C-alpha cells in the first residue's frame, strides 16, 4: 500500500455562535498525488487546510501529515508543508525573486543553496523573466505563481493550495493546472488543493473528496465517481413545449430509460448507452408527432455526482454561498 501523506480522521471544529465547520471529516491522501477537496462556499475547506497546516486546532479527531501529528508534532509538520492560502501573500514592494529568497531564508536555506533553489523554482513556475519585477506590479496569474514558488522553495513534502485559481482568467487557470501537474511530477510533492470548480478537480486530481457542510459526501477518482452514476444523460429539445404526460406516454416501457424529467421544451433522461437509445427514443417521439429540434448525449459530470449525493446543484449552491459571503464580509 502506498504511504499516506495525509491522514485525517473524524475532525470536528465548531466556531463560536454554533457554526459546525467540520463535522467528522475523514480522508487520506497517498504520497505523490494531487488530491482535490471539492466543495461549495462555506463547506469547510479552508478550515480543514488551517488545521492541517497547524494554524488552527480541531475540537476533536486526528490528523497526520507526513506521518506527524498536527497537534503533538506541529513543528515537524510545519517543516514539511507549504501553504498557499486563499489570499495573496507576496510582499508587493519586494521583487518576485526577493519574495522567494525571503521565504527560503525563513525555512533555513542560505547562501548558494538558497540562490540555486530560488532560481530553480522561479524557472519551474515560468517566473524567471519577471524575477526582478515588484510583486505588486505582476498580473493576477503571476502573483499566484509567486505564491506557489514561495510555497515550495523549502521543498515541502506536502503543499496546500486553498482555491489557487479563484478569480483567474480561464486561460491562465489552465496554464496553472499544467504547472501544478508538472510540480507533482518533478518534485514528487503531494498536493492538497481546495476548489469549487468541478472541472478543476476533474482535470487535476488523482482523487477527489466532495465536502459538504463539514463532511465528506463521497470520495474516489474523478472517473470512479462519474462511473457510479451509470449510463449517459440524454437531452432532447422540442420545437415547442410538450406535456410531461404525453412524453412519458410516448416513452413508456423503453428498456433502461430512467430518470425522465421534462422541463418546458426539454426532456432529460438517463440511458445505459446513450447512443443506442437515441434512434429508439426519436422513433417513439416521431410516432406521436412531437417535433424534435436537437438531441444530445453526454456522460455524467461531477455536477451530476454532487447532485446525486446532496440533492442540490453545485453551481447554484456555490453562487448562493458567494453572494451571501459577499454581504457578510
Ligand atoms: N473564524 C471564524 N469564525 C466563525 N465562523 C467561521 C470562521 N471561519 C469560518 N467560519 C464558518 O465555518 C464554515 C466553514 O468555513 P470555511 O472557510 O472553512 O469554508 P470554505 O469551504 O473554505 O468556503 P469558501 O469556498 O468560501 O472559501 C462557514 O460556515 C464559515 O462561515
Ligand atoms: Mg475557503
From TrEMBL:
Keywords, alphabetical: ATP-binding, Nucleotide-binding, Transport
Pfam families, alphabetized: ABC_tran (PF00005), DrrA1-3_C (PF13732)
Superkingdom of origin organism: Bacteria
GO molecular function: ATP binding; ATP hydrolysis activity
Presence of the UniProt keyword Ion transport in the record: no
Domain ABC transporter positions: 6-238
Protein name in the entry: ABC-2 type transport system ATP-binding protein
Annotated source species: Micromonospora echinofusca
Amino acid at each position: 500500500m502506498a504511504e499516506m501523506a495525509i491522514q485525517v480522521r473524524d475532525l470536528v471544529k465548531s466556531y463560536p455562535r454554533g457554526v459546525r465547520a467540520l463535522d467528522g471529516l475523514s480522508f487520506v491522501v497517498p504520497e505523490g498525488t494531487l488530491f482535490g477537496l471539492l466543495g461549495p462556499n462555506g463547506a469547510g475547506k479552508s478550515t480543514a487546510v488551517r488545521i492541517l497546516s497547524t494554524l488552527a486546532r480541531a475540537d476533536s479527531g486526528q490528523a497526520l501529515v507526513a506521518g506527524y501529528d498536527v497537534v503533538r508534532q506541529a513543528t515537524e509538520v510545519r517543516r514539511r508543508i507549504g501553504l498557499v492560502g486563499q489570499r495573496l501573500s507576496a510582499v508587493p514592494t519586494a521583487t518576485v525573486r526577493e519574495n522567494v529568497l525571503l521565504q527560503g531564508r525563513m525555512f533555513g536555506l542560505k547562501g548558494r543553496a538558497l540562490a540555486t533553489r530560488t532560481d530553480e523554482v522561479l524557472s519551474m513556475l515560468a517566473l524567471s523573466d519577471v524575477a526582478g519585477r515588484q510583486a505588486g506590479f505582476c498580473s493576477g496569474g503571476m502573483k499566484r505563481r509567486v505564491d506557489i514558488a514561495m510555497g515550495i522553495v523549502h521543498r515541502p513534502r506536502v503543499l496546500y493550495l486553498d482555491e489557487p485559481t479563484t478569480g483567474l482568467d480561464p486561460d491562465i487557470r489552465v496554464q496553472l493546472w499544467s504547472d501544478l501537474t508538472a510540480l507533482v511530477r518533478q518534485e514528487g510533492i503531494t498536493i492538497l488543493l481546495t476548489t469549487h470548480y468541478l472541472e478543476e478537480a476533474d482535470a487535476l486530481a488523482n482523487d477527489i473528496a466532495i465536502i459538504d457542510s463539514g463532511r465528506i459526501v463521497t470520495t474516489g477518482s474523478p472517473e470512479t465517481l462519474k462511473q457510479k452514476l451509470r449510463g449517459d444523460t440524454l437531452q432532447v429539445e422540442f420545437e415547442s413545449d410538450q406535456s410531461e404526460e404525453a412524453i412519458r406516454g410516448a416513452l413508456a416501457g423503453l428498456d433502461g430509460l430512467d430518470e425522465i424529467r421534462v422541463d418546458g421544451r426539454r426532456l432529460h433522461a438517463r440511458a445505459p448507452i446513450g447512443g443506442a437509445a437515441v434512434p429508439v427514443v426519436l422513433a417513439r417521439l416521431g410516432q406521436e408527432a412531437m417535433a424534435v429540434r436537437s438531441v444530445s448525449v453526454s456522460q455524467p459530470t461531477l455536477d451530476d455526482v454532487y447532485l446525486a449525493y446532496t440533492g442540490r446543484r453545485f453551481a447554484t449552491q456555490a453562487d448562493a454561498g458567494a453572494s451571501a459571503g459577499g454581504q457578510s464580509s
